[in-house]
């Protein structure tokens, strides 16, 4: 699901792996892992994965973060954690 947020990183990961560039493959893999862990660990329910991706997509301007029932948007602390993760990764456009 995180490929929806930053497909260029996944493409770069593939290209590095396809050319046998272990250093770049590790770099991109670690970047994906770090951001994914930041997004998927907000909240206490299994729906947190969906809510994290939805809010992140909202922050980068892809869609609204409206959640269909029975789901609800994250509360302010959850939203703040996701925004900070995207800020730290450089994914939020200025």
Sheet with most strands = none
Backbone CA Rg? 14 Å
What is the helix tally?
A: 4
Secondary structure: number of strands? 0
Whole-number count of domains: 1
Distance between the termini: 24 Å
Q: H/E order of the elements? A: HHHH
- What helical percentage do the residues reach? 55-70%
Proportion of beta-strand residues? under 5%
Q: What is the mean predicted local confidence, pLDDT?
A: 85
Unreliable runs, pLDDT <50, ≥5 residues?
none
Oligomer: single chain
Q: What characteristic shape results from the CA principal axes? A: elongated
Secondary-structure class: mainly alpha
Protein traits:
single chain; 94 residues; mainly alpha; 4 helices
Describe the overall structure:
This protein has 94 residues and is an all-alpha fold. It has one domain (2-89). Helices cover 61% and strands 0% of the residues. Helix 1 packs antiparallel against helix 2, helix 2 (22-40) packs antiparallel against helix 4 and helix 3 crosses helix 4. It starts with 6 loop residues before the first helix and ends in a 5-residue tail after the last helix. The relative contact order is 0.16.
């Amino acid at each position: 699901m995180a490929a929806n947020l930053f497909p260029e990183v996944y493409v770069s990961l593939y290209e590095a792996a396809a050319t046998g560039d272990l250093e770049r493959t590790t770099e991109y893999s670690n970047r994906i892992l770090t951001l994914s862990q930041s997004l998927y660990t907000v909240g206490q329910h299994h729906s947190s994965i969906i809510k994290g991706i939805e809010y992140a997509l909202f922050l980068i301007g892809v869609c609204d973060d409206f959640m269909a029932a029975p789901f609800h948007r994250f509360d302010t602390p959850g939203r703040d954690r996701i925004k900070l993760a995207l800020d730290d990764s450089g994914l939020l456009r200025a």
